[in-house]
Amino acid sequence: MVMVINMKLKFDVEGMMCAACSAAVERAVSKLDGVESAQVNLLAKLLTAEFDESKTDSEAIITAVKKAGFQATLHEETPPANTQDIKDMDDNSLMEYMRQLKNKKK
Ligand SMILES: [Cu+2]
Q: Both 42 and 70 in a single domain?
């Protein structure tokens, strides 16, 4: 059985002013070979792209956005304070950690 696990990445997109802009970005990115979906959140200026890593990559997506007339950069998720801590966690403490993260965001 072949399982294709799509990569999901977020990009910050600069220069979008209205729904037509975000639609242009979505269109440009979804046209790429290997891209499953491209969704733009205009208010957050965020592009979420789901793609097959074996067919395309973040560079190609950024280039497609640029060609459409906008600037894109990989969106940096705020990394956890210490990744090693998380690796060492058992399931219960990991759940607790996630719960705390969620609460922080509210
Ligand atoms: Cu526009």
A: yes
